[in-house]
Amino acid sequence: MDKLTGDDIVRMFVAIATILVAARIFGEIARRLAQPVVLGEIFAGILLGPTVLGSIAPELHQFLFPSKGAVALSQDAFKTLAIALFLLVAGMEVELSVMWKQGRTALSVGLMGIALPFALGFGAARLAPDLLGATSSVSPETFALFFATALSISALPVIAKTLMDLHLYKSDFGMTVIAAAVFNDLVGWLIFAVILGQIEYAHGPTHHMPIGVTLAVTAGFAALMLTAVRWLIHRTLPWILAHASFPTGVIGFALALALAGAAFTEFIGIHAIFGAFLVGVALGDSAHLRERTRTTITEFVSSIFAPLFFGSIGLSVNFITNFDPVLCGFVLAIACLGKIVGCGFGARWTKLSWRESWAIGFGMNARGAMEIILGTLALQYGIIREPMFVALVFMALATSMMSGPMMQRLLRTKRATRIERFIHSRTFVPRLRAIDRKSAIDELCQSLAATSRLDYARISTAVWEREQATPTGIGNGLAVPHARIDGLTQPFIAVGLSEAGVDFGATDGKAAHIVFVILTPASDHSTQLELLADIGRTFVQAAARERALKLRSFTELLAFLRTEPTAA
Amino acid sequence: MDKLTGDDIVRMFVAIATILVAARIFGEIARRLAQPVVLGEIFAGILLGPTVLGSIAPELHQFLFPSKGAVALSQDAFKTLAIALFLLVAGMEVELSVMWKQGRTALSVGLMGIALPFALGFGAARLAPDLLGATSSVSPETFALFFATALSISALPVIAKTLMDLHLYKSDFGMTVIAAAVFNDLVGWLIFAVILGQIEYAHGPTHHMPIGVTLAVTAGFAALMLTAVRWLIHRTLPWILAHASFPTGVIGFALALALAGAAFTEFIGIHAIFGAFLVGVALGDSAHLRERTRTTITEFVSSIFAPLFFGSIGLSVNFITNFDPVLCGFVLAIACLGKIVGCGFGARWTKLSWRESWAIGFGMNARGAMEIILGTLALQYGIIREPMFVALVFMALATSMMSGPMMQRLLRTKRATRIERFIHSRTFVPRLRAIDRKSAIDELCQSLAATSRLDYARISTAVWEREQATPTGIGNGLAVPHARIDGLTQPFIAVGLSEAGVDFGATDGKAAHIVFVILTPASDHSTQLELLADIGRTFVQAAARERALKLRSFTELLAFLRTEPTAA
To answer: What is the ipTM of this complex?
Structure first.
C-alpha cells in the first residue's frame, strides 16, 4: 500500500497550518486597509512561495512545499478539492431567479460586458502576441481566445461581497449587477471550457472527443443541471430532510453531488470546477436548502478551503522575477477599458443614468478570484507563461481593489455607521461607580475627555441638558444619553456597565445596566440616528443583553459587538 | 512538479463521492434500526472494500480504491486529515469542568473501568498469545500492552451521542459517565501513545527518543495543553473575535491549531490524532467559543470527514476471510466482562444503586469509534494482524449496539415522545375544507378512521365532547383537539392546515391555522402531555408557524418536524 509516512504527515499538516495562518493574517490586514480579503490571502502565498521564503530559506521552503513526492501530491489533492468546494459555494450564491427578473438590463450589461473586453482582448492578442508573451505550445488562436476570455469573466464572489459590504446587495442596482455577473460568468466559463477541451484534445491521449462534441456535451450538461437536475434536487431535498439525519444528510448529499459533478466535467475534458459550480447553482436555487445548512457549508468552506486555495496560488510562481511592468500595465489598461466601457454602455443603453451606468461598469470590473483560477489553469495547461500569470493576478487584484471605492463614490453611498467604530479601550467603563444618571453621565464624559481634546465641562453639560429634556432610558436595561456638539468632526462614544443599574427614566421602569454616551457633530443629523438604531438592533435580544452585562474587558466588548448577529 | 492528472482527479472525486454516499445511506439504515450511525458507515466501507466489491468487481475496486500511486496517496492524505478533524471535534465535546464536579464517582468508575479490562486483557495476551494471534513483529509485552489498552478505552463520542439520544446527557448520571469516559480516554490514549512511541523507537530511524523521553514529552505536552495552552486559547479567542472577521477567523484558528497540534504529536513519535484531540479539549473548554462556530465545525466535520474516515475502514481489510468466530467471541467476552464489571463496581463503591451502577457499566462499555482508530493504527504499525483487527471492529460495534438499549432498560427511561412518530402520509390534510371546529374535527377524524381500525363515530364524538368541555385553541394559530380512547395501544395523530383559519376559541382570539387531532390510550396519562408539549416547543417561534402553513405534502411536513430546532 502506498501510504504517507509519519514524516509526510508532519510536513503536510505543518504546511496546511502555515498557509491557513498566513492567509488569515494577511487577509485580515487587507480587510483593515478596506481591501478585499482575497488580496491578503494571495499576498500570504507570495510570501511563502519562491518569491520570498524560497529565496531567503530555500530548504525550509522545500521542506514545507516540495515540488515532488507524496507531500507535493497530497497538497495538490487538497488544493484541487479546495477549488471545487469554493466553486460549489460560489455557485450556491447565484440566484437564478434574479437573472430573469432584471432581464433586459442584466442581459445588456452581461453581453456588452463580455463582448467589448473579449473583442479588445482577442484583437490585442492577435496584433501583439509577442508583447503578451504568447507561448508556442498552443496555437495563436487558442492563446487569443484564452486572453479574450480572461478579460471577459467577472468575479461573482468578489462582486457579491463588495455589494454586501456597501449594503447594496438587495437593492435593484445590486441585483442588476449580480444578474449581469451571473450571465457573464456562465458564458465566460463555457468559452473557457471549450478552450480547455480543445487543448486536452490536442495534447492528451486520454480523451478523444472532437471540439464539437465537447461543446455539445458541455452545453447539454449545463442546460441539464440548470433545468432537470435543479428540479430533481428541489424535489429530493425535502425527502432527505424528512428521512435522513439533519443536517448531516443534506451536507453529505451536497458535497457528494458537487464532487460527482466535478468528476463528470473533468472526465468530459473540461475542468472539475465547472461541474462543482453548476451543482452549486442548482442546489443554492432550492428553497428547501435550509439557511442553517447553507451557512454551515459556506462558513466552513470560506474559512478553510478558500484561504487554502488562494494562499496556494503564490506557492509556485516567483512574482518578482516574473513581474513585467509593461505587460502588467497593458493588461490592466485593456481589461479596465473593455469592462468598464462595455458594461457602462450596456447599462446606459437600457436608460440607466450615466452615474449608475459607470457604477455598474466598475462593479463588474472586479476580477478577483475567478480570473486567478483561470490563470492557474492556463499556466498548468501551458497556455500562458509565468509573466502573463503574474500580470493576470496583478490585474485581478487591481480591478477588485478599485471596484468598491468607485461604486461608493459614484452612488454616493457610505458604509453603515456602527458603534464599534467609535468605541476605544479607554472609553469603556466595565464597572460604573455612579448610582444616578447625572453621575453616570459625568463618569462617562470624564473618560471621553481624558482620551480626547473634548472639554469635560462642555460635553457633560450638553449631555445633561439633553437628558433633562427627555430621559434617555430606552427600556430593556439600556440608556443612551447623547448630545450634538459644535465643532466635532466625528462621533465619540463611551460605554459603561452597571451591575446595580441606574435609573434613566425608562418607560418600562427598568434601571439601565448598559449606558452609552454618544456625542455627534452638530452639523450631522443622520449619524446620531444611525448609531441609536445600531444600538437598538444589537441589543434587541434578551440573551444579547445578558451576555453584554458579563463583559469585563474592551476586547470582550469588541468581540461582542462584532459577533452578535444583528438584524442587518 | 508532481501533480495529479485529470484521470487522477476524476478517480479521487468519484471515490470520495462514493464513500460519502454509501456511508450516509448505510448510516441512515443503521439509525432506522435504532443502531449507532457509525455501524452503518463502517458496513458501507466493508461493502466497497475487498470483502464485497473487491471480490465481485476487482477492476472497479482497483480503479476507485487503488493500493498504489497518486490516487492511493491522496486518499490516504484525506483519510489522515479526516481522523485528525474528527478527533478535534471529539475533543471539543469534552467538558473538563465536569470531570472535577463529578470527581469521586467519575474517578472511581474511570479508574476501575481501565484497571479491570487492562488486567484481563494483559493477562489474556500473556497467557494465550497464540489464540489472540500475536505477531512476531513486536515483542509479546508490546502486544499485551496494546491488547490491554484496546480493551480499556471507551468511545467518548458514541457514549455522548447515546446519552443525548436518551435525554440523559445533562443529568447527573450522564455527567458522571461522561466524566469517567473523559478520564478513561485521556489515560488510555496516553498508554497507547507510549506503546506507539516504543514501536517507532524500535523500528524507525527517524525518531531516536528513548521511551522515558517520549513519555515525559507526551505527559508534558498533555499537561501544557490542558493548562497553559487552554488558558492562552481562552485569552486569545476574544481577541480574534474582536479583530478578525467572524466566523472565518475563529474557524481558521481552530483548524490551524488542531493541525499544528497533530503535527507536533506525530513528530514526537506518537500519532497525530492525539494532538488534534488535546487541541479540541482545550478549545472546547473556552466559553468564548461561540455556539455558532462550534456548530459549524461540528456539523461539517461530522457530515463529511467522519463518514469519510469510518467509510474508509473497511476498504483495506477483507472482513470475511479474516473473520475468526472464536477470536471475535473471546475478545468480545473479556471486553464486556472487564468493562461492565470494572465500571459497575467502581460506581457501586461510591454508593450508587446496583441498577445505576450496571447502567454506568453498560454505558462505558461502548467502544465505537475510538477502538477502531486504535485498531487501524495498530494494524498499520504491525502490532496486530487482520483477524485481530476484524475482532476489534466486531467488538467495538457489538458493545456500542448493546449500550443504549441496556441503559434504557436499567434506568427505565424511554425516548422522548415526538409527534412525527405518529403522523402518517394519509393523516395529513394540507388544505382543510372545514370552516368551524366541529367540521374540522370530523374531517381529521375521518382521515384517522380511513387509515386505521378506529371507529369514526366513536372517536369524533369523544374528541368533540372533550372540545366542548374546554376549547383547545392554544393561541398563535394552533389548535389541539384531543381525547383519550379506551383500548388504544399507541397514539394516533392527524394534522390539518387551514389557510382561512378555524375558530377554536383561543384566548388570544386568533383563528387556528394548524390543527392536530390527538388520540392517546386511555390508560396512558403521560403520552398526551408529552405530545402537547412537543407541539408547543416545535411551534414556539412565529417563523416556524409561518413555514408550517406553507407545507404542501407529507414529505415537507416530515422535513419540517425533523429539522425545526426545538428548545429540547
So the answer is: 0.80
